[in-house]
Amino acid sequence: MGETKTADKREAPAVKSTVDFVHLHNHTHYSLLDGLQKVPAMLDWVQELGQKAVAITDHGTMSGAIEFYKEAKKRDIKPIIGMEAYVAARKHTDKNTREDRTPYHLTLLATNEIGYKNLIKLSTIACLEGFYYKPRIDRELIEKYHEGIIALTGCIGGEVGSHILADNYQSAKETAEWYSEIFGKDNYYLEMQPHIGWEPQDKVNAGLRQLSKELGLGLVVTGDAHYSKSERHYAHDILLCVQTGSTIDDPKRFKLDQDLSIYSGDELAKRFPDDLEALANTVKIAERCDLEIELGKILIPKFEVPEKYTEREYLRELVYQGAMWRYGDIPKEDISEYSEVKAKPKLPAEVVERIEYELEVVARMGYDGYFLIVADLLNWSKNNGIVCGPGRGSAAGSIVAYVTNITDLDPLKYDLLFERFLNPDRISMPDIDMDFCQSRRGEIIDYVVQQYGRANVAQIITFGKLLAKGVIRDVARVLDMPYAKADAMAKLIPDELGINLTSSYEKEPKIKELCDADPQAARVWEYALALEGLNRNAGTHAAGVVISNEPLWKKTPLFKPSGLDTLATQYNGKYVEDVDLIKFDFLGLKTLTVIEEANKLIEQRHGKRVDFITADVNDKG
Questions:
Q1: What are phi and psi of 360, to 5 degrees?
Q2: The whole model's pTM is what?
Q3: pLDDT tens digits for range 354-373
Q4: In angstroms, what CA-CA distances link 432 with 319, 584, 618?
Q5: DSSP string of 280-334?
Q6: Exposed (0-12), middle (13-18) or buried (19+): which is 166, by Cβ within 10 Å?
Q7: Is 192 helix (H, G, I), strand (E, B) or coil?
Q8: Which of 448, 545, 602, 620 has its CA 20 to 30 A from that of 37?
Q9: 3-class SS at 543?
Q10: Do residues 190 and 217 lie in contact, with contact meaning Cβ atoms separated by under 8 Å?
C-alpha cells in the first residue's frame, strides 16, 4: 500500500453478509509492525461475517501459515495459504540501486501441495538470497516455481499498478501479458481494491478494468486488510509509528489513511456495483484452493549406522557397551570389546531388566534414532573438551540415556522414574535438553551441519512481542508523552513473569488512578491494550535446532537471522513439529562456561581439575 491523504471511515457490520465474498489479501501480525491482527482474532471476525474461506498473505514471509491453517480448520473456515511477495525490478541478487530497494508487490496463493511447496521455496530464496531491505524474488524464480499458484497483481505497489500510476499503460499491459503467460489466464487476476475516492487507487482500478477488457483477464477485489475491524484504524496508525520510530503528530510520517479492515461482502458490493463478477471471482478462486497439509507426523532424522546394523540393533549394542562402563567397571576405552551377548551375564540383573524395559519402550515408540543422534552429539562434544551438563529434566530417569553418556545421573541409584520421560501410554516426543558451555555452543551447531548438511539444519525462529512494560513505553513515545512520565507509568506494571496489562490493571490500583486523572495516560493505556502481544521482531530461539535428512525448505520456509551465519525456520517452535520436524534443544549456559574457566585456573595453580561428575556429592570437605 502506498501513502494516502484521504480518510475512509465506516461502522463495523453487525450482521452476516448476504453477498458471498472471500478475502484473498490479508496481513496478520507476522507482517511485523504492519499487520495489527493476530490470527485467531482475524478468523473470529471472518467467522462472524459468515465468510467460508480466507487467505493469509503476509509481507514476504510464511511464518503464520501453520497457525493460520490449524486455527481456520478449528472454525471450519477454509484456509488459503499465500504470501505478498516482493518482486525485484531486476534480478533478486541485484542489491545496489534505488530501483533494487523498491520491489513490486505480488499476491500469491497456493492452490495445492505443489503450490504450497513452491511458495516455501520462493519465500526461502527471497530471504536467503534476495534480501535487500525486503526479501525479494524475481521473474526468473516466478517462472521456475509458479506451478500450483494463483497470482493477483497486488496493491497499487504491484508492477502493473505502478506502471498505470506512471501513465505507462503499455508497460502495464506487457507486464500483465507476461504474468498471464507464465501462470496461465485462469491463474492470474487483476487485483482491484476498495479505497474508492483515493485518486491513485481509482486510477489503478480503472486501468485494471481496461486491461481486463483488452486481455481477457479476470478481475478480483481484495481489501489488503491489516486489521479486522474499522475502529482499529487509529491503533494501526500507532503501530506504524512504532515501526518507523515517528510520533503520531509528525506531519512527515508514513501513514495509511485508508480503511484496511476486513469488509463484508455487502459493503464491497456497494463499492463495486458494476464489478460483481470480480467479487464472485474471490469465491471461485477459494474453491480452487484445495490445500491439505498433513500435520503431526514427526519424522526423526536417520542416523548413519555401521553397515551391518539397523538403528535398533546399533542402539542396543551401544547401550550394553555403555552399561559395562557404568556398571561393569570396564574402562571406557575397552567397552567396544563387549557385545550384548557378552555383556549381559556380567551386569546386575536389575540393570539388565531396566535396560530391556526401556529399550522395548523406545523401540515401540520408534525413537531409536533419536537416542543415537543425541548420544552422538553429546559424546562428540565431551570428546572435544566441550563442557556439557550432567542431564536435566525427566531424561535423567532413563538408564539408556545414562549408559550412552547422554546424562551423568544414575537413575537406579537415585530411584528416578523412566515413565516421566517416556510413557508408553502417553505418546509424546522425547525431549532431552542438552546443556553446553555457552562460548562453544556454535561448535556443536557446526558439527551438526557437517554431519547432516547445511540445508538440513536450522535454528528456530522466535518472535519478540510487544509486552506489558514495553508496549506502554512504545505507545507513550508515539503519543509524545514525556519520557519521565512514560517511565513512571511503565514501572507501575508489577514485576511478574508473563504479566499482561489487564492483570496489571486489576493488581495495581495506581494504574486506574493515573488513567482516571490523566487523559494522556488513559489514551496510552487504551492503545497499549490494542497493541499488546503483537509480534515486534524476529530472532532465534535460545536453544532450539531442527535437523532433517532432506533440505528443510521441503518442510518449512527459512530465513537468515540478522548478524548470524546460520539458517532459521520461519515456523516457530510451536509449529515445526506439526510439519514433521523434530526439535533438539542445544542450550548454551554461562554457568558451564564459568565452571570451565574456574577449572582451568585450578589446573594452572594446582595441576589437576575438579571432576564434578565423579566427585562425592556427600563429601562435606
A1: -65, -45
A2: 0.91
A3: 999 999 999 999 999 999 99
A4: 17, 7, 27
A5: HHHHHHHHH-------S---PPPP---TT--HHHHHHHHHHHHHHHHHS---GGG
A6: exposed
A7: strand
A8: 545
A9: strand
A10: yes
